[in-house]
Amino acid sequence: GAVVSQHPSRVICKSGTSVKIECRSLDFQATTMFWYRQFPKQSLMLMATSNEGSKATYEQGVEKDKFLINHASLTLSTLTVTSAHPEDSSFYICSASFFEGFPSYGYTFGSGTRLTVV
Amino acid sequence: SQELEQSPQSLIVQEGKNLTINCTSSKTLYGLYWYKQKYGEGLIFLMMLQKGGEEKSHEKITAKLDEKKQQSSLHITASQPSHAGIYLCGAEYGGSQGNLIFGKGTKLSVKP
Question: For A89, which residue in chain B has the nearest alpha carbon?
């Protein structure tokens, strides 16, 4: 089955530094990838949608310059949290969707990344 | 082994029929989230359950969490084509709040 590998699973960084999170589809080509963020006791919140080779579409309220998303290939999308601050501490998860053949489609989620900014 | 089992994997129902999707955990849940996703779109949050025996409803969708907090069901009454999509349950466990373990999803198709 389709597997998405997300790394790292946990990261602790100092305030002001940047952190890169990778989301890689292992056995399929991901036409679209999604990045989510979750705060404690709240649902996942979509941050942005990225299609390979094009700029990501960010949700309202998400800072483009702070959360850089690169979807350079059909198997890899990265989320870089720039100049991280403690309020950026959260759980980030990626999801990838792909065509199985019209009208069928599939999706799968990464295992998530727990970011702690100290 | 999978901590969270979601069933069925896919479901095709006639418009107007009721249906149920189940999510079973091998461990006691701290919280259980239900989401829906359509192709090319992000997850849509449906409901979150936290208390044993809790039941929540929104329009024609009802979600329940059993008393033992290990099983949840999502029930759709009088299904409509707009209900079609992938339904996903996400489990939250004590000691790792905020980290969700997801089921594999249920793909629902509603035939007009």
Answer: B98
